Amino acid sequence: MKSSRPLLIKLIVIQILLGGCQAAPTTQQPPPETVAPATPTSNVSFMIFGDPAELQAYQNLVKAYDAKFPGEKIELIHIPDQADYRQRLAADFAAGTPADVVLINYRRFSVLAEKGALEPLGPYLEKSPLIHAADFYPEAILAFQWGRRGLMCIPQNISSLVVYYNKDLFQAAGLAYPSADWTWDDFLATAQALTLDQDGDGHTDQHGLGVEPTLQRVAPFIWQNGGDVVRIERSVWTRELALDDPLALEAIRWFVALQLTHHVVPNAVDEEAENSESRFLNGRVAMYLNSRRGVPTYRTITAFDWDVAPLPRKRWRRSGVLHADGYCLPAVSAHKAAAWQFIEFANSVEGQTLVARSGRTVPSLKVVAESPAFLDPAAKPLNSRVFLDTLPHLRMLPRVTNWPDIEEIANDEIERAFYGQADVVEAIHAAVVRTEEYFP
User: Fold this and answer.
1) Smallest Cα–Cα separation from 352: which of 153, 136, 45?
2) 328 and 282 in a common domain
């Protein structure tokens, strides 16, 4: 179970970030007509997050860039844990010393964009001879637009939430693999059939499902049920969480019941002892919900076979939640031309092909996503096309300035409900009330 950070620490980190970001000039200077090649003395720092299997993908990217531009030097800064990465990012921006290129999720770039701490990359993309906006999936480009400032970051990927499943456990239970049109009822029945007390000691040894109790994980089920995450009062143009609306609350109750009522997900004590992703890797969780980023790690599995399936649907509704990271260029960078050259290469066909082969991403470039680099039938998962088939059904979480605060509070309350530490209605009401002040 992910432990909730004290709200005070979170607010301090965000306050430092907001106070320390240096605003860009009010009139943004466009890049030169042709971005000059980086000079041999340009050292570009590139900060990323991810486990060792993910790190290898970026090391390959940097190695290829160095070979293509022998006078260049890319300093790769790796922060394994995402939470540590976000804190490091906040501290670096507060100090005015961020890396020249940073990876940021679309749900978290808004505070930096609003403060002018990021260099808008739309003008650079317009003048690039190597990559063009039309080459990318439009959903990925849209995710990094910020009002009049335009395109802030170049999207690296366009993943969705999918179900990873252990094919060996399905076979042992005599179950058919998940179909493209399975429903919530099918999903629950499958998870129940795969939840086993194998030695009869009264303790579950194998769980049918592993999932993080977060807003990002429950959002697609809310949308499938006809609810929404945010409510807009158009008369006064204010927003607030809509999780307490009947249709949203119904979906949250169903999600919480997976653990609290049906016990197909590890409880709080079991999750604290060993998280669900580790249990999936070790063959003790049959299905696990994640985006594409887990693939490099899952490819290290040798004890069993696995694949991916789409999320189950609620009757006729299909909805997924967008996962997308972008290469962003801090406005204070002293090496903008060199940093852009690296971003441009990383998002070229050559660059995205390298990272796609690692399994790390669903490429944001359409031509790479449809290529063997991503759809290679010899590389797991066999059914990678699931990620592309779900694109028409993807929805974004809101991109408001304080969304990281809002999402973390909602996560805290959803987790309390999920593990039976609070009634669902009580927890969701608390989420709505606690986040009111963060909405514009």
Assistant:
1) 136
2) no
